[in-house]
Amino acid sequence: MSLSKGLGAWALTPVGGLIVVTVAAITATGGLFLTGAAKADFSVAASPASQSAAQGQSALFTVTLSANNGFASPVQLTASGLPTGATASFSPVQLTKGSGTSSMSVTTANDTPTGTSTITVTGTSGSLVHGTTVSLTVTPHVAPAFSLSATPGSSTMLPGDTATYQVSVAGTNGFSGSVALSTVGALPAGMVASFSPAAVTSGHTSTLTVTTKNNTTSGNYTLTVAGNSAGQQQQTTTVGLNLNATGRSFTITGPSFSNIAPGVNIPLDLAISNPNTQALNVTNLTVTVQSVTKAAGIDPSLKCTTADYVVTQYGGTYPLTVGPGANSVKLSALDNIAAHLPTIGMLNSSTANQDGCRGANVVLAFTGAGQGG
Q: Which of 107, 183, 251, 307 is 20 to 30 A from residue 143's alpha carbon, by CA?
């Protein structure tokens, strides 16, 4: 039995009580379409679109797989079109769920030709193969290197003292070697330099300690620090050392005072600070009236000058010994006789009008000589 119903010939065949319909031919007419289920698949993308790397260095790309229509099969990643000597590695090399990201690292060799290459990244899952491309530009090789620096740039101290500096190593272009440190040339008699540690790597520092003896000759010295590392050119930096018999400057300060009346003397208990690491012998303490400024509102016709004031200098015995590193040692602690302290006073004139000095601001200056003990 057979029949035709517009779309083709149908054959009806009885089989064991059933009727099997066989469609001999179907012709789609009048807007009739037959479609099947969408196919599961995946796509591949990579970023960034281009990278550059020096010879011997690496470039990193991110490979992204996107699943379509429920695709969930493992996808194996490969790369082709690499420049000579370059290799590509994926992490992971297989995406088991059919989607996700993988890092592709392209590593060049020292002799990989310079220039731009197009690399094809391919994902394979059974008969499904998809890919994308990225660009890699190889630039000339830049050799690893290092440099030295030191702080402070200079130091001043007495003979017999010790100075310290921080020596730093900075690497570039992937430098990772160990740098051995030393000083260049002969040091003055009695001067010794040492490093702790004696060798450092990039990003680290070593302490340079310079010790001297009391009889080391004073002067301005420049010490050259050298760094040596296997396969590298020697690098240097310098530090200054001012070895001065008078050492670093010490300071003298005086107490505040106000409203000096005619005929009145005010004791000045001076304070001496010694920043050196050795005792300091101080002599020739001197106090002078540096300036006088009249108070506001005083009659301009009334005078007040430095000549209206008188200073009595320190009357004790020299030297005054100030210990190392002492901060603001009072003169009264070095000489406990109050009568030895210097004083500031205002002259008592029986003929001149001294009202011009009422409330005046008096500025004193203090000087002295110091020698290492």
A: 183
pTM for the whole structure: 0.46
H helix runs in the chain, sequence order: 331-334
- Domains in the chain: boundaries: 1-35, 41-139, 145-243, 251-372
Structurally, at CATH architecture level, domain 145-243 sits in Sandwich (2.60)
Instruction: Report d(CA 97, CA 99) in Å as an integer.
Output: 6
Question: Residue 327 carries which side chain, given as an amino acid letter?
Answer: N
Q: Are 257 and 344 in contact (CB under 8 A)?
A: yes
CATH number of 41-139: 2.60.40.10
pLDDT, tens digit (0-9, with 9 covering 90-100), for 200-226:
999 999 999 999 998 899 999 999 999
The tally of CA atoms less than 13 A away on the side-chain side of residue 45 is: 7
Q: How many helices (H) and strands (E) does the chain have?
A: 1, 30
Copy the structure tokens of residue 315: 């009357």
